[in-house]
Amino acid sequence: MADTGERLESIRRLRMWTQARLAREAGVSPTTISGIETGKTGRPHFGTLGKLARALGVTPEELLGPRPAAGGAAPLLMGWASDSEESEFERGLESASLESLDSLSRELDAEQARLQRLYSEFPEASEQRRFIKRQIREVAGQSGSVKTSAMVRRSEREAKRHQ
Question: Which of 16, 32, 114, 153 has an alpha carbon within 20 to 30 A of 5's alpha carbon?
Answer without folding.
Answer: 114
